[in-house]
Amino acid sequence: MLFNRYRRGLFITSFLAAPVILYLVYVISPYVQAFYIAMTDWRGVSATPNFIGLENFQRLLGDSVFWKAVTHNIALLVLLPVITIVIALFFAFLLNVGGRQGVSGIPGSGFYRVVFFFPQVLAVTIVAVLFQQVFRPDGSGMLNGPLMGLGLNPVGFLSDPDVAFWSVLGVLVWQAVGFYVVLFSAGLASIPKDMFEAAQIDGANRITLFFRVTLPLLWDTVQVAWVYLGILAMDVFAIVWVMTDQQGGPDWSTTVMAAEIYRNAFEYFRFGYASALGVVMFFFTVGFAVLSLRLSRRERIEY
Amino acid sequence: MASIVLTNVDKIYAGGVKAVNGLNLEIRDGEFMVLVGPSGCGKSTALRMIAGLEDISGGEISIGEKVVNHLPPKDRDIAMVFQNYALYPHMTVEENLAFGLKLRKMPKPEIQKRVGEAAKMLGLETYLKRKPAALSGGQRQRVAMGRAIVREPQAFLMDEPLSNLDAKLRVSMRASLNTLHERLGVTTVYVTHDQVEAMTLGDRVCVLRDGILQQVDTPQNLFDKPVNLFVAGFMGSPAMNFVTAELVRGDGGAAVTFADIKLSIPDSTFTDKPGLDQYVGKKIILGIRPSDFEDAGSAGNHANGWATLPVKVEVTEELGSEINVLFLIDAPPVEHKDTVAAADSGEDEEASLPLVGDKSLWTARVNARSHARSGQNLDLVVDTHNLHFFDSASGLAIGHEANR
Prior knowledge:
The complex is a heterodimer of chains A (303) and B (404).
Chain A: H1 2-37, H2 55-61, H3 64-96, H4 109-121, H5 124-134, H6 144-149, H7 164-189, H8 193-202, H9 206-217, H10 219-234, H11 238-243, H12 257-267, H13 271-295
Chain B: E1 4-12, E2 18-27, E3 32-36, H1 43-51, E4 58-63, E5 66-67, E6 78-81, H2 93-103, H3 108-122, H4 137-150, E7 155-159, H5 167-184, E8 187-192, H6 195-201, E9 204-209, E10 212-217, H7 219-224, H8 229-234, E11 241-250, E12 253-258, E13 261-264, H9 267-272, E14 283-288, E15 293-295, H10 296-299, E16 307-318, E17 322-329, H11 337-343, E18 360-367, E19 377-382, E20 388-391
Parallel strand pairs in B: 3-8, 3-9, 6-7, 7-8
Antiparallel strand pairs in B: 1-2, 1-4, 4-5, 9-10, 11-12, 11-14, 12-13, 14-20, 15-19, 16-17, 16-19, 17-18
Helix pairs in contact in B: 2-3, 2-4, 3-4
Subcellular location (chain A): Cell membrane
Domain ABC transmembrane type-1 (chain A): 70-292
GO biological process, one term (chain A): transmembrane transport
């Protein structure tokens, strides 16, 4: 009996050991090291970095570029989930419930499903390069071409500091929507069909059907989407780095925390300072996760 | 309140499957109409077409003189009760009841009045603030009913509303449905596959099979005068006993013979069923209801003139108030397509005993005073006035007014 229990413990441990060790070595220990490096002035050259305490954090407080990046991240944190979820919910509703007859999608919903998901299968870098072309400021840009054809002034989608951030946001939404359409479609599929039929007989039109029945029943899924998108907004990097002018420009108008960390680490070789930025970003992300889990605790819906 | 008229209604699904085929049905104002049939017979589809949840491939449906073919469900002024209740899980009972009224922009006091009345009628007053998840099956069922009642619609449509309840609750809900219908008098269309529900609830019952209407009549008439083998086999539990028999006319009047049994037929049968005399000397399918048997020993005087049938009891099923006696008849089971369809439909599928071999297993329902036991020999008497005769080729009841 005792032997059996011992053997079972051994069995479980042997399976757990590998992933736990990998996780400790490659995830947890770099985190811990980062906390230490953040308190040094290491520039990647000396073997024994100088310990300088919280000096990096002091400097960071006065770093206007970093705080600009933080505001961009926070703006994304608010806007990206809202816009993406609204659009994705709208599409998912039309694809699954909003049809004319009974509980079905609009005509051609199978086709749209593929179209909406398409951005999701493209690599982020490709998306970034693609949109560089779409946003070109001259007549061969996909957006500016028609504008100039109509005799309007071209818009500097990536060159105008007032516009560039919105271009980045637009691309992020464009790429994210497809996945959330699929997520919400799956959520809708788990709601019994007769719920919608009952609502139709009760007198719901498409709008009331959406707001009074679909949205409340889908609320759990929406919350999950919110957390995912919030995390996505916190660690935006590739789109900004590849697509925008001067990697986060012009004039830092599109830069984000991850981009600043990368710049400090691998362009300015201030590894200590970059780690300090990373630590700050870590606390932002953890804070967001804790907050959203706290707020989203709600009684579960049972059918 | 209104009548519902279906004229030549078709439903053809993609792929050409005809779920409902030329259905003609008139549901009178205030009537309780039950659509019954085995699964896949098109009864639910018909109901959903009346509700507007399913489009109509052909024909015309009108509710209260108004053709509703192209009206969306919300404009048909009907309320529906679903099999799984379809209560909104995020709303309380009260909100569930009020939802349809709110959407119709009814003034608040009127909503409250109606919700209050319905809750009182259904005994839901103490549960108004609860969510459906905190209710039992029966309570949810009553909320679903209440949601239909508060609307005060022209018609109730019910899609197997009792089939998710346990047996005992089903019986009591059946009774409350009956009283509810009597009190409200709203036209009701009720779909079920349970012929007991159909018999007990319906003012009239409509039997469907493969999308085709078989017979519409009062429950009693369906039981007494089934139009064909399918209806005969489907309605009534235990099911009617069938055997292929020969109709003969000898010195002592007419009789049917099967196996080595001869049952004489009273003369009145021939006047009741015109056309039956043309079958003399031919094979027919004979049907006998289990309830038309009685134990000779306990039958008493009213069985005077009934034919006697000596049998050997195989199995008895004692139900307390009566006993089902299962016995073998030395004739091959009737393999008509209609009897097969009716038999494999009901939920209480009688698994045919492989032991039976080439004999038919019959059931007789006898009085509990009978002391029939398995293995015994027993004399059964048969009420020969209630024999059913079917054409062995078409399966139609011989002499039935619909088949003349």
